[in-house]
Design a protein that fits this description.
Number of strands: 15
Largest sheet: 9 strands, mixed
Strand order of the largest sheet: 2-3-7-4-6-5-9-10-11
Helix content: 25-40%
Distance between the termini: 35 Å
Order of helices and strands: EHEEHEHHEHEHEHEEEHEEEEHEH
Bound molecules: threonylcarbamoyladenylate, magnesium ion
Strand content: 15-25%
Shape: globular
Structural class: alpha/beta
Number of helices: 10
Length: 323
């Protein structure tokens, strides 16, 4: 069983860093979701991440840094816009895909010549990287293709028996993963995430949205990802549920702002009563976890407006469906 340690204690950061130095992965919070980290330069340790997550090796891992010096240690930075983006959005939920430096193991990049890098906006994550003295390669701390963890309980449930230390930082700020940007002449958004695409465009101009990823470019963008165990159906509005034959089952409802007929549902969650997409995103994975564990046999999820963080929510919702 894992030890859950308060991540805000300097002593616990030291403990976790010591474990990382020995080659043992640890779980830590970021501002997006919890990550399962290893020293990026320690291949054996990175391999353990794949093992713990039951993740296929064709899925590359994001490298977390605490300084621009570390950026240059892992990536080739020729594009000035990288520094502009870093200045505006780091530390923060933006991952940049850049040409990799030789010393970054191919295991981290799944054989690609590029590496995904980001500087997390979380004091525990940054302290841990600094204490280790090296960047930390870390995917989300969930089992492959399962829901991402936004709280320690989510981590415990999925991989708690396989890791030694979980640093507790409470509920993560955003609750959805970072936005991934491939730095080409016209940059391409490979994954909509916690940083709004509109914000990126304000700084570097128009970017492309890649909805259907070529397999090799972002192998992690498999069609079903973030899936709950129960069937999940996306609907436009509550009324639509009447038309589904599954309405005879015990229904769980993930609503955006409100529910008219609460009695109709065996279980329900409202993402944001105010209609605030930031709040909705931060609740998204947590509520899906809860609906997945609750009494419902099937989950209906209502669409949200596809602006700002709504894009990130809808992308994850689409991946969570089983059809
Ligand atoms: O917010 C986040 O990004 C969280 C926290 C822990 O930092 N991490 C995260 O990692 O979501 P993960 O492994 O669950 O998702 C990383 C995604 C994968 O879909 C992977 O395919 C993509 O990033 N990726 C990583 N390196 C890449 C590369 N060189 N080229 C294309 N895609 C890459
Ligand atoms: Mg993930």
């Amino acid at each position: 069983m894992s030890q859950i340690l308060n991540g805000f204690s300097a002593q616990n950061i030291k403990k976790a860093a010591a474990l990382l130095k020995k080659g043992e992965p640890v779980v830590f919070p970021t501002e997006t979701v919890y990550g399962l980290g290893a020293n990026v330069f320690n291949k054996k340790s990175v391999a353990k991440i794949f093992e713990i997550k039951e993740r296929p090796f064709f899925d590359p891992i994001i490298v977390h840094i605490a300084s621009l010096k570390q950026l240059e240690e892992v990536a080739e930075v020729k594009d000035e816009r990288v520094y502009t983006l870093a200045q505006h959005f780091w530390p923060g939920p933006l991952t940049l895909i850049l040409p990799k430096k030789k010393k970054v193991p191919y295991l981290v990049t799944a054989g690609l010549e590029t590496v995904g890098v980001r500087m997390p906006r979380n004091i525990i994550a940054l302290s841990l990287i600094e204490e280790l003295g090296a960047p930390i390669a870390a995917p989300s701390a969930n089992l492959f293709s399962q829901l991402s963890p936004t709280k320690v309980e989510h981590v415990e449930k999925q991989i708690g028996h396989k890791v030694k230390i979980i640093l507790d930082g409470g509920k993560t700020l955003y609750g959805v993963e970072s936005t991934i940007l491939l730095m080409e002449e016209t940059p391409v958004v490979l994954r909509a995430g916690a940083l709004e695409i509109e914000e990126i465009e304000k700084v570097i101009g128009p970017v492309l949205l890649k909805k259907k990823m070529p397999k090799v470019l972002a192998p992690g963008n498999l069609k079903t990802h973030y899936s709950p165990q129960k069937p999940l159906i996306i609907i436009k509005s509550e009324e639509e549920i009447k038309n589904w034959k599954e309405r005879n089952k015990k229904i769980g409802f993930l609503a955006f702002q409100k529910i008219k007929n609460k009695k109709f549902f065996a279980d329900y969650k409202i993402l944001s009563a105010k209609g605030d997409l930031k709040e909705a995103a931060s609740n998204f994975f947590d509520y899906l976890h809860q609906l997945d564990e609750g009494p419902a046999e099937i989950i209906f999820a209502e669409i949200v407006p596809e602006v700002g963080l709504g894009k990130a929510i809808m992308e994850r919702l689409n991946k969570a469906t089983h059809q």
